[in-house]
């Protein structure tokens, strides 16, 4: 018989830095076999979701969020988040009892390093008062939309300034000899 391989995590200390992610291609330099294992794990998590996750997913399914949709158990880089909105660069993580805090901090650092904001919500809060949770999520979405608009405006201004500087640099004064 062959031994079945499982995913192993390296020991992480509280002061461990987030691994450097290079946003290249499909998996951010993650091997195809590792990426497939992550997707299989996410699929398994979908099948056996917690009651809090199911309740929030049901509300997201009913809500009209326009172009902002949240994908359940999304693989982002080498992490699996409970909900991810790609358009906003926002992830929602449901904090369940028994979660590994060091692993969560490391995942959050990795996601923040590539511009994804992580919002933590306690499972008990979702089950006790989902309307307040949805208000918090909506407020977080509004902040993220405002951040994106500000960043987009700054990028456009930078591009205009660079273009103007380039045009000034190419105009050489005429020398009359």
* Main pleated sheet: 4 strands, mixed
Class by alpha and beta content: alpha+beta
How far the N terminus sits from the C terminus, by CA atoms, comes to: 90 Å
**CATH second-level architecture:** 3-Layer(aba) Sandwich
Under CATH, the homologous superfamily reads: VSR Endonuclease
Précis, in short:
It comes from Aurantiacibacter luteus. The chain has 177 residues and is of the alpha+beta class.
How are the SSEs placed, and which strands pair?
Elements: H1 32-47, H2 51-62, E1 71-76, E2 79-85, E3 90-95, H3 101-113, E4 117-122, H4 123-128, H5 130-170
Parallel strand pairs: 3-4
Antiparallel strand pairs: 1-2, 2-3
What does this protein structure show overall?
It is a single chain. With 177 residues, this protein is an alpha+beta fold. The protein has a single domain (32-168), classed as VSR Endonuclease (Endonuclease, Chain A). 50% of the residues lie in helices and 14% in strands. It is built from five helices and four strands; from the N terminus they run ααβββαβαα. It has a four-stranded mixed β-sheet, sandwiched between helices. The relative contact order is 0.12.
Search tags:
four-stranded mixed β-sheet, 177 residues, Endonuclease, Chain A, single chain, globular, 14% strand
């Amino acid at each position: 018989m062959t031994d079945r391989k499982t995913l192993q995590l390296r020991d992480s200390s509280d002061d461990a830095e987030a691994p450097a992610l290079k946003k290249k291609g499909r998996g951010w330099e993650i091997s195809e076999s590792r990426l497939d294992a992550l997707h299989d794990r996410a699929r398994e998590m979908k099948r056996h979701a917690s009651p809090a996750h199911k309740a929030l997913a049901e509300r997201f399914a009913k809500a009209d969020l326009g172009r902002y949709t949240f994908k359940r158990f999304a693989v982002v880089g080498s992490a699996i988040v409970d909900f991810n909105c790609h358009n906003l660069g926002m992830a929602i993580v449901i904090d369940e009892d028994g979660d590994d805090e060091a692993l969560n901090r490391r995942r959050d650092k990795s996601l923040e390093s590539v511009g994804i904001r992580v919002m933590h919500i306690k499972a008990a809060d979702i089950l006790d008062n989902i309307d307040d949770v949805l208000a918090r999520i909506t407020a977080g979405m509004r902040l993220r939309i405002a951040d994106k608009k500000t960043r987009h405006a700054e990028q456009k201004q930078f591009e205009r300034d660079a273009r103007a500087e380039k045009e000034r640099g190419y105009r050489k004064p005429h020398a009359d000899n």
